[in-house]
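Q: Here's a chain of 472 amino acids. Please give me its 3D structure as tokens.
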Amino acid sequence: MKTIKKSLLLALVASTSVALAEGSLEDRVANLEADKALNTFHFSGALWTRYDDITASQTGSSVLNDHTDYMRLRAALNSDADVSNNIKVYTRFATSKFYNRWATQTPNTLAPNGASTAGTPTLPSGFVTDLGASRNEQNGPTLMLEKAYADYSPDGSKFVFSFGRLPTFDGPLTHMSKDKARQGTYASLTYNAVLDGLALSYNDKLGGGDFSARVIYSPFTYNESNAGFIAPAVPSNIHAPTPTNNATGAPMRTIDDMVTLMLEWDKDLGTAGKIAVMYQGYDLTDAAYTGADFHVTDNTGGNFGMVSGTGEIDVGVIAHTLTVEWDHFLGSNFDLGYSFLNSTVSNSGQMSLGTSTYYGIGATAANQSISSSESLVVLKYRVNNKMTIGTELLFGSSGIFSYDSCSEMLTGFYGTPGTSSNSFMTYKVTPEMTAVLGAVFQNYSALPMAFGPVTSSNRTIQTYFTSLNVDF
């Protein structure tokens, strides 16, 4: 009997040990999977707010005397993944908004039933679009895909292939006035915009520093606004946009090509600081604008409403930028930055809108090209490990083409034709939180480039701002 009891006890102990061992193995596997997931995904983000007090004035044939102020909020969430040793994926979702936007100024004098005679003014189409936000179906703050691209590099290769929504915004030298590390890859004076594309990079050592060469292909897509070019029920309806090229009568292109070349060299100079030198150039080939893309108000001949334009203009842009950044210049507390942009806009064709005829961007006649340049100088001094002071000086000529759709400044500072400055002070409240105070002065010699001739101007804009940024 004792033998049987002993045998049963040993069996119970053994089975319990096996169960415990199995449980431990499951726990270890679960922990390994959790560790792998944690090591694969990396999350970060930023929350930003800014207040701007803006005064604008202009004399002459077009008088401007205006004052306004705004508060804005921006939030971004990054999710990056180390998919494998060869593949990395980077994404960012972001939203940017004015504080409590309860209405937009969009006057509407059309009759509610769409009649061709003036009716009782209706509420602006943007009335009450924000206060419900994500809790209803109105057009509240919208989360946008700001960045989404993958990097692939074969084992042992110095080449990296990238595709998707690339980091073509917030590039150097815009980070200096925020006392931040470099945020984007491509020089912001060339373009500061969210662009999709394909890129091939080559990375190597050169002259004791790091060298990289990149070629980026960014196709610009022209979509027909009418229904029909993607019709699942009738596949044969997939076709090119209906407007035709004036010169050839052929259907409009659906893709216009932009190719960018970038060369960069970075070197740590030890006690003399760190230097980065970048060249960037791009060629946008004949982007097409048709009269059908634009509408003008026509109240002549008993008409009431909007009519389409006619004709077509092809616009090409070639730009070159040289950018230099030197942190801790010669071992001092100064950071220096310099960026030079030269642009040439080429126009062909013409377009009629109402009673006006246009020959392209900045053009006064058919087939006209406009070349211009601008320079940006940045000087920043590190007062201590928390505070910096500095200034950005911009010298822009009339006719400059600088595409800056992602600037934090509401007044298009980096594309100003004229002499401008941004004096700033940054203070790190904590390592994660930075406050910025600034004063921006813009003195225009001409208005920014648009359809029609370059227009001289004596416009001045003064902006006083403060912002607060938290990185997490």
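Q: Can you summarize the key feature?
A: Confidence is low (pLDDT under 50) at residues 8-21, 106-127, 225-249.
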